[in-house]
Amino acid sequence: MSPQSQPLKTRLKACAEDVAQKLERMLSEDPRGAEQYRPPRLLEAMRHGVLNGGKRIRPFLMIETARMLGYEHPGALRAACALECVHSYSLIHDDLPAMDDDALRRGKPTVHVAFDEATAILAGDSLLTMAFDIMADEKTHYKAEVRTELVRGLAQNAGIGGMAGGQSLDIASEGRSITEGEIRQLEQMKTGALLRFACEAGAMLAEANAKERAAVTRFGTIIGLAFQLADDLLDVTSTSAQLGKTAGKDQKAKKATLVSLHGIEATRAELNTLITEAESLLAPFGSQADTLTATARYIATRKN
Amino acid sequence: MSPQSQPLKTRLKACAEDVAQKLERMLSEDPRGAEQYRPPRLLEAMRHGVLNGGKRIRPFLMIETARMLGYEHPGALRAACALECVHSYSLIHDDLPAMDDDALRRGKPTVHVAFDEATAILAGDSLLTMAFDIMADEKTHYKAEVRTELVRGLAQNAGIGGMAGGQSLDIASEGRSITEGEIRQLEQMKTGALLRFACEAGAMLAEANAKERAAVTRFGTIIGLAFQLADDLLDVTSTSAQLGKTAGKDQKAKKATLVSLHGIEATRAELNTLITEAESLLAPFGSQADTLTATARYIATRKN
Fold first, then answer.
1. Crossing angle for the helix pair A163-173 and B117-136, nearest 10 degrees?
2. CB of A148 less than 8 A from some CB of B
3. Which residues does UniProt assign to the signal peptide (chains A, B) (predicted)?
4. Closest approach of chain B CAs to the CA of A32, in angstroms?
5. Chain A within 8 Å of B113 (Cβ-Cβ)?
6. Cα distance between residue B99 and residue B107, in whole Å
7. Alpha helix (H) residue ranges in chain B
8. Where are the domains of chain B?
9. Quick one: pLDDT band at residue B176, thresholds 50, 70, 90?
10. Most CB atoms closer than 10 Å: which of A175, A214, B86, B243?
11. d(CA B18, CA B58)
12. Helix, strand, or coil here: A138?
């Protein structure tokens, strides 16, 4: 059975294992691989933050987008690991007492609880920084032009115009009523930007043409929207045991979401419309797009 | 009078003004220049952190090293601004309550005091991220290979093997006695790495040959050492008014420095040896090296 014909969950799991193994090697304590001295406690905190049993959705999207566009190369796994470093950095910083003040993530103590606040800040900083080192490395892509494009895209989607800006808007929105436009803006930046970029970066790796790139980038935007809507739905429809994290957090924090504005049924309808659009966007790629369209459906209907 | 023949202080001041003006433009609130939405409060915090009246020593070293090696181009100013973004990010995060807990910097409230802790963390994150966007931009250097080299060098000197790692060691050393080797290691990482990289990056921009590059990189190492030794000396020999920051902090914190280990005289002697080495390293560049050697002397003998 070729990988492409395996069930999505098998493929997702295999990718998560590849990513974890690669990150494990990059953050290995073995000094033979490291040219620089890396303080052991800080390294351990970075490992705690990034080797966290995550689903590695962003790496999967990047690798599968690149594959759909004809690019299969070990460099895609490296670039995918850079995305996961940025995702993990944002979780570590978002969990800090000054931000969302979360003590648990995936049932394990968050980095500032397992270590200390200063170490958590520095572990996040170091993972963010490492991501750019990985992206710019010639082992990621043989063309320097592609690497600089990846670096710039990652920076623009992680910085003030992307994830960091979105987190800032999210904090500022706490306890006050915000408009639907504001909710969409902050969610697009905080969560949507990196998911969209995961797909766009797959097109960069594959050096896709403008039309292909526009299609997968819009597909990435849809993935970002669907991910957030599904997350908001799960918060109101699931138990904490199902989620593996505290349910009902949005309501408790009186946090406005699209679900609280429009209700559960309208949100499910929007999700269906998004999935239909995703399928028609990728239709020109034929069976090569099967994995990505299945991923869109999985994200929209996931249970945790 | 050509710029090269102007007194060092005039040149330093002119460079600091160029850097501040360029950063001001990059962080302008004018939406015409920005392709992405940037939350105003976070942008204001980034401006507060980076438009701080700093001496811009790192940008100066980079621009002057590139110039000595024959490279004069607006891209050098852009790359220099990226260095200053990384320097400012590190100051913002180091000042946080969980780290050094400083309320004042250059006589102004630190970012977490002027804004709040969450905003300070995100402003630091955003400045760090922005630096990589600037470095990878084709406006910095026309060759993508040079830009990826700059990105990787910056990441390696800012991350766990550089500044973040050094800060982590510094925090871990508080209140316990550490060896001279440990002091040198942490200072080289925390302060030395970015100063050395400023010089090395000048050679990258100028596409210098291996011999030239080795010479300016060693020069950068010397600058880093001299900067730290001078800083440690000032802490014991100056008043707070002269320094523009609290004097005697190292002694009060019982922080071991090379000055506390070897005394003032031996430290001054080490500084003199370093300056002599710097001068002989750059001797092959003749009068083209005048500015850099004057900078080394200035750093070793500065009063604040």
1. 160
2. yes
3. none
4. 14
5. no
6. 19
7. 8-26, 40-50, 57-68, 74-94, 111-114, 117-136, 144-158, 163-173, 180-187, 193-205, 210-237, 240-243, 249-252, 258-262, 264-282, 290-301
8. 6-301
9. confident
10. B86
11. 13
12. coil
Contact B130 A155 (CB under 8 A): yes
C-alpha B170 chain-centroid distance: 17
Give the CATH architecture of domain A7-217: Orthogonal Bundle (1.10)
Name the minimum distance, in Å, from the CA of A302 to any CA of chain B: 30
Of A125, A185, A189, nearest to B164 by CB-CB distance is A125
B236 Cβ under 8 Å from any chain A Cβ: no
Residue B12 to residues B54, B131, B288, Cα–Cα distance (Å): 11, 22, 16
Which residues, numbered 192 to 221 in chain A, qualify as contacts with chain B under a Cβ-Cβ cut-off of 8 Å?
none
List of chain B residues whose C-beta atoms are within 8 Å of the C-beta of residue A37: 161, 165, 185, 189
- B181 pLDDT more than 80: yes
Task: Name residues 15-34 of chain B within 8 A of A (Cβ).
Answer: 34
Nearest to B147 among A133, A148, A160 (CB): A148
Judge whether B149 and A147 are in contact, CB under 8 Å: no
Average pLDDT value for residue range A105-112: 95
The CATH H-level superfamily of B6-301 is Farnesyl Diphosphate Synthase (1.10.600.10)
pLDDT by residue (tens digit) across B91-117?
Answer: 999 999 999 999 999 999 999 999 999
CA Rg value for chain B: 19
Q: State the complex-level ipTM.
A: 0.95
Partner-chain residue, chosen from A38, A39, A159, that has the shortest CB–CB distance to B130:
A159
Find the mean pLDDT for residues B190-196: 97
Quick one: A67 exposed, middle or buried, by C-beta within 10 A (0-12, 13-18, 19+)? buried
User: Three-class SS of residue A67?
Assistant: helix
Taking only the tens place, the pLDDT of each residue in A123-160 is 999 999 999 999 999 999 999 999 999 999 999 999 99
